[in-house]
Amino acid sequence: MNIPYHRSVLLIVVPLVVLCLPAISDAESSCISCHTDLPVDELSQPAQNFTADLHNLAGFGCQDCHGGDPTVGMDDYELAHSASKGFIGVPDEQEIPGLCASCHADVEFMKQYDPKLQVDQLLEYRSSHHGKLLAEGDDKVATCVSCHGVHGIRPIDDTRSSVYKTNIARTCAGCHSDEDYMAEYDIPTKQFAQYKESIHGRKLMDEGDLAAPTCNNCHGSHGATPPGLTSVSNACGSCHANNLEYFNQSPHNDAFAMMEIGKCETCHGHHDVEQPTREEFGIGEDSKCLDCHSEGDAGYTAAKVMAEGYDSLETTLDQARELLERAERGGVDVSLGKFDLHSADDALIKARTAVHYFDTTKYNEVVQAGLIDAQKVIEQGHEAVDDLEMRRIGLAFTIPVILLVALALYLRVRQIERTKPYA
Amino acid sequence: MGRRRFLDVILGGGITALLVGIVYPVFRFIIPPEQPEADASRVVAAKTSELPPNSSKIFKFGKDPAILVHTKSGDYRAFAAICTHLDCTVQYRDDLEHIWCACHNGHYDLNGNNISGPPPSPLAQYEVTVRGEDIIVSKA
User: Fold this and answer.
1) What domains can you pick out in chain A, each with its CATH number?
2) Which of A243, A335, A405 sits opposite B14 (nearest CB)?
3) Separation of alpha carbons A411 and A403, rounded Å
4) How deeply is B102 buried, as exposed, middle or buried, from its count of CB atoms within 10 A (0-12, 13-18, 19+)?
5) Which secondary structure element, helix H or strand E, spans residue B126, and what is its range?
6) Which of A43, A45, A55, A48 is nearest to A10 (CA)?
7) Beta bridge partners of B116
8) A408 in contact with B at a CB cutoff of 8 Å?
9) Which residues, in sequence order, are bridge partners of residue B82?
10) CB contacts < 8 Å between A and B, how many?
11) Would you call B103 and A240 a contact, using CB atoms and an 8 Å cutoff?
């Protein structure tokens, strides 16, 4: 016989509470005071955890989700847990989104707690893959409690919350990395393993950089994989806006569409996206350009030209930086040079983005602007180094002069002493 | 030339050279170089006449660029002009009325808060005081 989970819990809880009645009959009438001491973890843990739950702290009680009447008193267990008092026990998976939304989708009700609170979660959830599968009767998919937890729910900005930004990937991985659990869905389970080694994962989870994206920044939260997100590139472009904009203007845009390959992920990957390196473009061994292009075609030539331009700018900037550092180590004020070096450095960063034009003319405009700025800094660097050399020459000239004067003075004093008659 | 005469020449020449060595830095101090001395904590960023409302100026603050914004409502605000994403120099967009980084399309509001794009944190804000024609920016 297949007994639903919530009914099986009731089958356990009724006899246990009946057994407890003599002991609790004099205690105060509340769900928490009885359940906290029940000898079955499954029944006591929710009550214990609920004390730290944000709903409890906001004044809500067990009955607001489970129904029942905690004011009846522990003498009449059956009345407190009766259908006449609205008791529903453990909500069914299918009921959970609606139950949470009975408050969370009520604009007037929620605004009294926080005017900023989102109230369209249920609408979004129903548009999500999770929501659609649930509607089809699949009880294994995530509902509200799968991510937010239950009975110990904390605000999303609490670092202990399962949906705090740095914890989200692990929360999603709870199901999505479980090969057995996900077996019937025919989707990969290595996303978390790839993500935590990616530049995004390392920035967020290792360095605590909250600007780095996690699962929901690309896939959405309540509307996970929402309708309209036809391409991963649209998600990438929400942060890397210039890169996507330049790509859309590039000859690759139509070519990639024709080949039905993704704009960003073809070169950068999905969950395993890494910090791009200079070696990834150009005509070197690790160049991704050569995955499609080969010597003699236009793409190969463009990759070569762009890589040479980048290297030229980088080398010139290094030269400028080295000159300024040399002068600064010698005590020369190079603050103006360093100020100008900022704008020259900008060009190198812009050049990395401008690669996505895949157009040597547009790319070279960025590089040339940087080279002009870098050249200006080099001139300032040379002036500063010349100034330093001048000071060194001055010092080299002055020291022998001082020594010579001292020697001459010594000899002159001796000479005076020799010619002076002894008293 | 006798020995005494030789010593006198050495002494006279040496003392003259030493005097030049002393006077030259004094001369350079009296006539300062074109490049102003770096002041890391306080600078006259602009004159009020050169900055109409809804405009900005990038100025040198120490060795780093900073941005002075004259808002549409008439306030002066100053921030470090280095984007917190990858250190590009930010600029003011009069069409958006906020600060923008051209490198990766990062946006900051007029309190320096990062509001869109990849910047991970706000821009450092400086104090602005207006004394006569001078707009003085200082680190708090």
Assistant:
1) 1-90 (no CATH), 93-225 (no CATH), 232-274 (no CATH), 298-393 (1.20.140)
2) A405
3) 12
4) middle
5) strand B125-131
6) A43
7) B107
8) yes
9) B89
10) 92
11) no
Q: Which residues of B touch A394 (CB under 8 A)?
A: 21, 24
User: What pLDDT, on the 0 to 100 scale, is given for residue A218?
Assistant: 87
The Cα A300–Cα A293 span in angstroms is 6
pTM attached to this predicted model? 0.75
Nearest to A349 among B8, B15, B103 (CB): B103
C-alpha A96/C-alpha A128 separation (Å) is 15
Of A333, A343, A401, the CB nearest to B38: A333
Q: Rounded to 5 degrees, what are φ and ψ at B79?
A: -140, 160
Buried b (16+ CB within 10 A) or exposed e, B30-59: eeeeeeeebeeeebebbeeeebeeeebbbb
Which residues in B114-123 are b (16+ Cβ under 10 Å) and which e? beebbbeebb
**DSSP codes, A220-254:** -STTSS-TT---HHHHHHTTSHHHHHHHHHSHHHH
**Torsion over CA: B122, B126, B129, B133 (sign):** negative
Are A273 and A204 in contact by the 8 Å Cβ rule? The answer is: no
Query: Residues A381, A324: contact at Cβ < 8 Å?
Result: yes
CA neighbor of B111 nearest in space, from B96, B126, B101: B126
Count of residues making up chain A = 423
Report the distance separating Cα B124 and Cα B62, nearest Å.
14
Banded model confidence at residue B34, pLDDT cuts 50, 70, 90: low
User: Token pair 């909250």 is at which residue?
Assistant: A210
Residue A147 pLDDT: 95
Q: Between A115 and A423, where is the model more confident?
A: A115
Does position A234 have pLDDT exceeding 50, yes or no?
A: yes
The amino acid occupying position A316 is: T
- Give the integer Cα–Cα distance in Å for A95 and A170: 25
Is any Cβ of chain B less than 8 angstroms from the Cβ of A244? no
Whether residues A209 and B120 touch (CB distance < 8 A) is answered with yes
Lowest-confidence segment of A9-13, A147-151, A302-306 by average pLDDT: A9-13
Q: Which residues contact B3 (CB under 8 A, 6 or more apart)?
A: A415
Closest to A156 (Cα-Cα) out of A222, A219, A206? A222
Q: Is A411 on the interface with B (CB under 8 A)?
A: yes
- Cβ(A211)–Cβ(A249) under 8 Å? no
